[in-house]
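Predict the 3D structure for this chain.
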Amino acid sequence: MMLRRFFLASLLLASSLFGEFNYLVENTNFTISQGSTFPTVQKEYLYNYNRLRLNMDYYEGNYFAKLIGDGVNYFGDEFVNSNDFKYIQQIQSDTPFKTQTSFKNYEQGSIYAKLYRLYAGYEDDKNRVTVGLQNITMGVGRFWTPTNLFNPKNIYALEPDEVFGVAALSYTRHINETTDLSITSSLREDNSLKYAARYKTFQEFSDIAIDAVYSDITKMIGYEVEANLGDTGIEVRSEGAYILSKLKPNMQDIDFFQGIAGADYGFINGINLTIEALYSSKSFSYTEIFSNLNSDILTNLTYSKFYTGTSLSYTFNIFLDGSLLYIESFNEKNSRFVSPTLTYTLNDFNTFIIGAMLQHGEDGSEFGSFKNNTYYLNYRLSF
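Done. Predicted structure below.
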């Protein structure tokens, strides 16, 4: 009921304003079979995850605003009463205000509402300023983005790009047609500030960017490079970050370098190939990673020092697409993560996806320690 009132009020408010207003309603439904995310728990769960999303955009001259709100439902008695679900309930945005309601349990499920994005701004030929709950873009990696300490994607998630927004003020100055300077200030859950600066320019044959991030406990300086390899059609890229931070529980100082190198190529027959490698000068234990789930360098805390990733996608026809993601973790015991998907697009409004996320390796390896293979059917409806 609260979610309905919120959506209705938002629609009435937007329709009362002058300017261009667009909205889209999307429903994403997953039926999921997965193992526990805890290594010591040998348990399989079957449950349903549903997200109803309202996406609204408003434009008036040089001004713009965006609102994305979600109603989320988990259905499956065994899963909702598991430790895995309790872990999901503990994950919150790093903002000074709550972006989601409390979970409301019912007989076999749990429901809550979430504010995913809410921001407004101004843009002209030389300037863009945005304030509110937003996504801060940094990095050029397809699988990993070491320089992004705001909204890093999680390549191992069902929806890697579904990340919490940050409460931020961001400003970009378009110095000329090939050069931008961006400055960001975000307010964190503890009311401390995190700052970032990014200078990006095109030099002869490549885009180059220098990134910097500063907060009370984390400092980062990084680079980004992206270019076409002559006339081959191959796009190459690299990014790297030197990070100084503190880790719980003792808040000990750490410093390390992390970088990626990758390439993309589209074949004539419709196959698209992406390869990428990640190197980290330090690796971290499971204890260190799970003790720092709220750290802004969580995705930089890797169990292995070296990874390679490959992604293949192919369009069979206008209705059917397939893709395969393969990631190898190199350690004393190698292990791998494999994710195949098959997508059937019925029309502009209905999409069906069958997929799996498989983990394999010896006991004690990164992916071999977790027997939580996931299989899912995803149905997306938009109108």
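The CA atoms of residues 100 and 114 lie 4 Å apart.
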